[in-house]
């Protein structure tokens, strides 16, 4: 019986295994069929009948490199492209291209080598290719990794000399993708093809080489060339060994490549292999006809002052040597964002006077934040420029009612002052209103002076929301003049004596030492104001910047008025309640440029507080309510319930640990 039972069990086991094997085979068959169909459908979706190239949204350019140059790229990731049996290398590629029925296959690559400026874009129309946008990676999270002692040296030296993380800046290289921080409506705005040509002027003193060159490359990568006449770099007598020569070499290389590129298009010599060979051949002869044509092409020029002049006079030197209709002044540690230039040019062109042929306005971009420690690029909110009686520039919230509709987020916004580092203005208007005050030294005060002058002498100053430029905000200014002169106070008082009338006394109240400063000769600036028939500073305060507090009684009256305007407390459902905000501000540590901000984002409950550079970002903006709450970013309340350190908590509207009052009130 035992033998029979065992035999029976073996027979049943074989039958079950047979069924299992059949099921397994059929499962593999159906799975393979499903994957085959999916891959075929995916291939059909991507092959739309047109020859396509995928390009990064920010129009990064690409460099074609001959196969013989592979050894030069030993330390960089590389992509191999195959066209008719010939291997080519392509830097910074993440593309899928089809040329004449042959598919180019690329692996994702990343290289710090020069990427040929918009090569694919310029040749696309000649090769019958359609451009489609693809996102790009903004920042490699490994860029800040310390691998050895040399990395530590580079980082620490960078902080000492430049006040930002040069290790990360070096690793980023000349090109990177940036987030599009514009309002969504900006992306559908249309601008005229016939806008004025621009001279971009960048002045620098002992700037970090890689950061400076990325500033230049960002302009080339994200600017339509038809709007650019020239880029002028002004070296303000830098004394870092080799810096000027290194920049000059890079400028020469850029100009040569752009000249060759235009020549290829002009001669219609645009087959792919000759493009590759020609662009990389530095021995090509340019004929006289090409030389004449190149006079109208974009050029990059490097100038150098004969002595240390400072930002103000260096900018004047650059402007005097410019030829563009519009001047765009930029700092030397910036990265322009997508379509940054047309919105400013279009606004300037709208206000052109028929007689003078220039507009009486200056425009500024929204200044996004590039973190000095991480080089992370983040969006800034829409704010406008102001100042206090210490003559320090500050950012102000927009007046109530400025942004009522979606369309208001893309309209120009009037600003009482500008930060000064980044703005656009017609060259002739810049000359007409008196350029900069040449009696000012090095840096500081010139931004308020030109702001007052524009408004008081019949012009206007506007923020253009659809134009965004990132700026490295450093915790300190890394260089001075070597002498003991307080040039910021000197410059500010020159401005105050000429433009602020009797209100100069309020400035002296805040800084008594300014009363007896030797300011030099002010005659030419007083004559300028008289010749331009400029209005009074009182007119400016009443019409352009009425928000500025002009006296202690007015401070009290405004606060009382704000409290009287607060709605009476009414019962509201919890999910739809509205807080009664009476004020908003940053909280700054006295005698520093550090502000209190959340350690994490403003929505993280229980988050702690830290000090960071005052840069007007959301997690530094505190909103005070009628219940004396401090609400960070209109989200969470400052709470002191844990008896250790304040933290961010859900607003309970019961006072106690969430009730805060100003000292002395």
From TrEMBL:
Domain Glycosyltransferase 2-like: 199-252, 288-430
EC number(s) recorded for this UniProt protein: 2.4.1.-
Signal sequence extent: none
InterPro entries: GalNAc-T, Glyco_trans_2-like, Nucleotide-diphossugar_trans, Ricin_B-like_lectins
Subcellular location: Endomembrane system; Golgi apparatus membrane; Membrane
Pathway annotation: Protein modification; protein glycosylation
GO BP annotation list: protein O-linked glycosylation; regulation of Notch signaling pathway
Entry cofactors: Mn(2+)
Pfam families: Glycos_transf_2
Membrane topology of this protein: Single-pass membrane protein; Single-pass type II membrane protein
Transmembrane segments: 24-45
One annotated GO molecular function: polypeptide N-acetylgalactosaminyltransferase activity
Coiled coil: 244-271
Keywords of the record: Coiled coil, Disulfide bond, Glycosyltransferase, Golgi apparatus, Lectin, Manganese, Membrane, Signal-anchor, Transferase, Transmembrane, Transmembrane helix
Main location: membrane
Membership in a protein family: Belongs to the glycosyltransferase 2 family. GalNAc-T subfamily.
The protein, known as: Polypeptide N-acetylgalactosaminyltransferase
């Amino acid at each position: 019986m035992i033998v029979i039972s065992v035999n029976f069990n073996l027979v049943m086991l074989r039958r079950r295994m047979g069924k299992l094997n059949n099921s397994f085979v059929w499962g593999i068959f159906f799975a393979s069929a499903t994957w085959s169909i999916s891959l075929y459908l995916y291939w059909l979706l991507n092959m739309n009948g047109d020859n396509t190239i995928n390009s990064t949204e920010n129009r990064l350019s690409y460099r074609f490199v001959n196969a013989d140059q592979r050894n030069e790229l030993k330390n960089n990731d590389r992509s191999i492209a195959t066209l008719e049996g010939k291997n080519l290398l392509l830097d910074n590629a993440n593309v899928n291209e089809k040329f004449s029925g042959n598919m180019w296959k690329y692996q994702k690559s990343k290289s710090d080598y020069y990427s040929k400026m918009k090569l694919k874009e310029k040749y696309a129309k000649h090769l019958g290719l359609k451009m489609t946008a693809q996102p790009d990676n903004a920042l490699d999270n490994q860029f800040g990794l310390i691998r050895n002692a040399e990395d530590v040296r580079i980082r620490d030296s960078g902080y000492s000399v430049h006040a930002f993380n040069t290790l990360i800046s070096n690793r980023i290289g000349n090109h990177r993708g940036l987030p599009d921080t514009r309002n969504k409506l900006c992306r559908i705005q249309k601008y005229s093809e016939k806008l004025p040509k621009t001279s971009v002027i960048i002045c620098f003193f002992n700037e970090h080489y890689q950061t400076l060159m990325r500033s230049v490359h960002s302009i080339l990568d994200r600017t339509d060339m038809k709007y650019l006449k020239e880029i002028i770099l002004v070296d303000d007598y830098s004394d870092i060994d080799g810096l000027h020569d290194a920049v000059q070499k890079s400028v020469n290389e850029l100009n040569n490549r752009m000249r060759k590129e235009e020549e290829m298009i002009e001669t219609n010599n645009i087959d792919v292999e000759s493009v590759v060979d020609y662009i990389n051949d530095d021995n090509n002869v340019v004929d006289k006809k090409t030389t004449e044509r190149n006079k109208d092409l974009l050029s990059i020029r490097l100038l150098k002052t004969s002595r240390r002049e400072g930002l103000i006079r260096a900018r004047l030197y650059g402007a005097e040597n410019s030829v563009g209709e519009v001047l765009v002044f930029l700092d030397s540690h910036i990265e322009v964002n997508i379509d940054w230039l047309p919105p400013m040019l279009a606004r300037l062109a709208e206000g052109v006077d028929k007689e003078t042929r220039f507009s009486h306005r200056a425009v500024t971009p929204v200044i996004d934040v590039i973190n000095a420690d991480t080089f992370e690029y983040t969006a800034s909110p829409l704010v406008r420029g102001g100042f206090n009686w210490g003559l320090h520039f500050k950012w102000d919230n927009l007046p109530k009612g400025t942004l009522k509709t979606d369309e208001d987020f893309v309209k120009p916004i009037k600003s009482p002052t500008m930060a000064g580092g980044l703005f656009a203005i017609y060259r002739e208007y810049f000359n007409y209103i008196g350029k900069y005050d040449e009696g000012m030294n090095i840096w500081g005060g010139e931004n308020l002076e030109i702001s007052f002058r524009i408004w008081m002498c019949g012009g206007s100053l506007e923020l253009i929301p659809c134009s965004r430029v990132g700026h490295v905000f450093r915790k300190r200014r890394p260089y001075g003049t070597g002498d003991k002169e307080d040039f910021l106070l000197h410059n500010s008082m020159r401005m105050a004596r000429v433009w602020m009338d009797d209100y100069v006394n309020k400035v002296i109240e805040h800084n008594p030492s300014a009363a007896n400063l030797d300011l030099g000769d002010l005659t030419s600036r007083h004559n300028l104001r008289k010749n331009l028939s400029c209005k009074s500073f009182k007119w400016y305060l009443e019409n352009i910047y009425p928000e500025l507090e002009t006296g202690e009684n007015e401070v009290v009256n405004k606060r009382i008025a704000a409290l009287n305007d607060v709605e009476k407390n009414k019962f509201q459902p919890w999910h739809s309640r509205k807080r009664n905000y009476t004020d908003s501000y940053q909280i700054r540590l006295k005698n520093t440029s550090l502000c209190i901000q959340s350690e994490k984002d403003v929505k993280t409950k229980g988050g702690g507080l830290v000090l960071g550079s005052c840069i007007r970002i959301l997690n530094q903006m505190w909103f005070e309510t009628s219940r004396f709450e401090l609400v960070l970013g209109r989200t969470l309340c400052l709470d002191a319930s844990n008896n250790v350190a304040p933290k961010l908590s859900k607003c309970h509207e019961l006072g106690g640990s969430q009730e805060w009052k100003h000292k002395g009130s």
